[in-house]
Design a protein that fits this description.
InterPro entries: DUF3857 (IPR024618), Papain-like_cys_pep_sf (IPR038765), Transglutaminase-like (IPR002931). The protein contains eleven helices and 36 strands. Strands 1, 2, 3, 4, 5, 6, 7, 8, 10, 12 and 13 form an eleven-stranded mixed sheet that branches. It folds into three domains: 36-282, Immunoglobulin-like; 287-453, C8orf32 fold, CATH 3.10.620.30; 460-665, Jelly Rolls (Sandwich). Helix 7 links the parallel strand 16 (340-341) and strand 17 (361-362). 17% of the residues lie in helices and 42% in strands. With 666 residues, it is an alpha+beta fold.
Length: 666
Amino acid sequence: MKYTLTVIVLICFFHTNAQEFKSGKIDQDWFEKTLTEEQLEAPAVFLEKYRDTNFEYRDNLDGWTLFTTIHNVIKINNTEGLEYGTHKVVLQHQGRQEEKIDRIEAYSYSNSSAGVERTKMSRSEVIDNKLNKWLDEKVIVIPNVKVGDIIEYSYRVESTYWHIKDLNVQEDIPVLHAYAKIAIPQFFDYNVYVKGDIEIVPKLSVGGRTENFSTEDKNPFGGRTQRTDFANIRFKENISEFEFSNVSPIIKEEFTNNIENFRSAVLWELGAVEMSKGNKVNRAKTWDQVADYYYEQLELSDNLESTNFLDESSQALKSKHSNQVELIEAVYRFIQNKMTWDEKEYNYDTPDLRKAFKDGSGSSYEINVLLVALLKKVGLNSSPVMASTKSNGVPLYPTVNGFNYVLAAVVKDNEWLVMDATEKNAIPGLLPERIMNWEGRLVKQNGTSKGIPLFAKKFSSQKTIVIASVNTEGIATGKLRVSYSNNLALSFVNIYKPAAASTREKILAKEFESDLITNPQFKFGTLPKSSTVSFAFEDDTSEIIGDKLYILPQLFLSATENPFTLEKRSYTIDFSYPKQIENVVTLNLPVGYAITSLPEAIEINLPGNMGVYRFKCSSATGTSVQVVRSLSINTTLIDAKLYEEIKKFFAQIVAKEKETIVLVKK
């Protein structure tokens, strides 16, 4: 994927004595800082962002600990910016590994005729939330925040995970000035990646440090003993310093996969650690090393082999199905019906396939690894696929942290077929939209891996048939029927099937932008069969001027707004999957009126056969009009370089669909 963001002015100089400023010392000068028009019009603006990340060595039992200090100052410009008065920090813990937070300070500052008034946050205004078994949350609530105030907060996170958090150069609001320093001991080898279009030029240097290393013996139970040995060791430290000024915020745009994929940032991925002299443990230098990591650290190999509890099920399935296609379908349906997704992507803590199978519930890891195991047991070639949901972003480099979901793949007709048994309404080869995210990584037991595209291979269709009559007052009444296939059908079923009748009607009215819908009838087909909805409607979009009646050919189905309105586009356009939207409308005209004009037929093509729009309006008898309109999007992703073409394409569609059938009284 190519990241395309608006290039902004970047000041890459470094203060000679760049250091953290003290908390609680905001004065009048901060309120008088010169801000650009963009910074003044934003909900809020970072006046200062400071970060320091470094490692300290505890002892041979605790090892290296990662410390990150954060200190931010934000000016609140309007009511939308008040949300920045609450800051959340998520902390992870698992076994001996954990993240802790300390040194929390927060203040609000108001500027009045009497001077700058400071309010300090009390400890009671720090809220502790438990998100789940592995994640806690600290919520810093800054007191008495009002529009025009400056807020300040600082804290330090202590972590034994060695995972350096991303450095976001670009935020949701403008940044006046930012400084960050990342210091990494020579024993850690991190892969460093940059995303976004902002030029990021760090100041690199190598420093020397002396650390007091202590060694403690363990007792038979793994605890500490009284004996402690000490040694001073001098080592090198690789230092990266980043400084930015006047950074524009990231802009959210329609038809964007995940805005985080385009945010300018620096990312660190731990590639190797030198545990002792000459003993380097590789973690994520190549995709094959990533595959090894998943099989070893996440116990994929053990979980796939320790599945004798599936023997009875596999024998039953093999006895009923011998054809490969039928067997794949049967195994998939068995796991799909047996298991219910707990809506957790992973369960890396203690993935227990036996327990998950017994309980009939589990994470994407447990459900789809069970699917892989059962496919293997019936004699099929199957492997797990590590994937990342759209909300998690796109892993573009070898990473063990970039994946948050597991899929299953099986060889069918010499090709890999990817499946997700967490989705109750899907079929083999049809993935839910949440996981249609670039490509996954198929990991084999022999330690190799390969990229697997996660884009839809089949077109999804939406076909609408309308039969309506228009009266002399321009009111159209009629019936409408829509049928959906593939991913559009999956989305339709997932939205409407679990909803109550009253809720369905509200969703339907919003989707079709009409409050004049009555008697909706839903038919939820089992894929690959289509699903349908039909309803009666009344439409008042026609207009009478003098003795003429102007009717929109597609009534309320007409496109009236271009979804692409920005002057320039920075991000790849994501249509989710190839699709065809077709409307076939028959309008019976009112008695006493004659056709004066009909919109002309048109065909509009996008370059490279990426899409086509066709529109035809005709009348064979003069008493009715037939309209056939189709829009085909033949590709999932379109480069932002073609934005002008896309914008023009949809502008032409809107212009055409605003044209009216003109009738005149006889």
